Amino acid sequence: DRVMQTFMRAYTTADNALAKEVFRSDGVMIGTSENRGPALAQRTGAQFAEGFDGKPAANEDQRKRSYEIVDVARDLAAVRVDLDYPGWRGVDYVVLIKVEGQWMIASKTWTGYLTPRTP
Question: Three-state DSSP class for 96?
């Protein structure tokens, strides 16, 4: 839960230090979304963290995020993250692994779709 709370704060603050704290640099992020075309987007954990530039999104106050820890199996955990942004909705599945007593994100797989914007 602590790792996921930090991960959510990385989004709201756009702080790459927080993302680096919880996402393994050799981890993988892969996903697809209508607004990016049919191709899969793929990045390492390090590349993902570098995308946080310290400038939260202009509409950050309208973005909603929630997560549910779906399963924990000793040194492995799966988490579903629901994202509700103006004009876009998405789901992430985040896998965490515990190595040498420390939980970190090993992978994030996501999908998203456009939604009508309300005035």
Answer: strand
